[in-house]
What we know:
There is one protein chain. This protein is of the alpha/beta class and about 270 residues long. It has helices at about 60-65, 80-95, 105-115, 140, 150-155, 170-175, 185-190, 200, 230-240, 255, 260-270, and strands at about 15-20, 20-25, 45, 70-75, 100-105, 120-125, 155-160, 165-170, 195, 215-220, 240-245. It has one domain: 3-Layer(aba) Sandwich (Rossmann fold), CATH 3.40.50.1820. About 30% of the residues lie in helices and about 20% in strands. The strands form 2 sheets. The chain has an 8-stranded mixed sheet with strand order 1-2-4-3-5-6-10-11, sandwiched between helices. A 3-stranded antiparallel sheet has the order 7-8-9. Helix 9 (about 230-240) links the parallel strand 10 and strand 11. The protein is globular, with a radius of gyration of 17 Å. Mean pLDDT is about 90; it is low at about 1-40.
Amino acid sequence: xxxxxxxxxxxxxxxxxxxxxxxxxxxxxxxxxxxxxxxxxxxxxxxxxxxxxxxxxxxxxxxxxxxxxxxxxxxxxxxxxxxxxxxxxxxxxxxxxxxxxxxxxxxxxxxxxxxxxxxxxxxxxxxxxxxxxxxxxxxxxxxxxxxxxxxxxxxxxxxxxxxxxxxxxxxxxxxxxxxxxxxxxxxxxxxxxxxxxxxxxxxxxxxxxxxxxxxxxxxxxxxxxxxxxxxxxxxxxxxxxxxxxxxxxxxxxxxxxxxxxxxxxxxxxxxxxx
Length: 274
């Protein structure tokens, strides 16, 4: 790593308490250890997918920080794979030291491109995520195996300039997107969800996705109604990823099983430590 390419990440912690819930955007290991001496552990960068936002990682972040990991939850624009990946790559370039890069759902497309050629990324962790090969799209991978309900669940909003925003209809969000999350919580996630462009879900993956060269880990949600478990297993096996299946888990596996998710991320961090 060249000193010119990386800059020191000086932000300590930004935690916002709103409506009784903790929303963590960036936390350093120093904040988890009195005395301000950060643990020598990789920074965990969390990238949310479509129909979600970074606040969904709150419970996972709390566990990772308690175990001494610096954490950054990226704001994924959800506008297009290449442009979203460029923004995440800029974030990676601002972090000194090794990084474990985590992506949920469409965030898997983004991290697969953002980490390409970045020697500081030691592991890729996919959470019910897409692990695309060159030229593949999220839409095509969703339909590769039967079982997805996403096509029946979308609401479209035409945008100026010809783009279209897509979101999950709140009326079916709990049943189809977050089936194992309490209904009252799922209702809040449905309101807070951020739309993705139709173009992003149909944008082909760039050449040489990062999982070709970086060790990969895949947490598979066993009752997923958005990305069928069969599709998740197919992508994980193709990438030679180390996998764990969470039985009965919905697409929001990191929300409904934060302990399992944090432990899985930490496993990737330990096994790829430098």
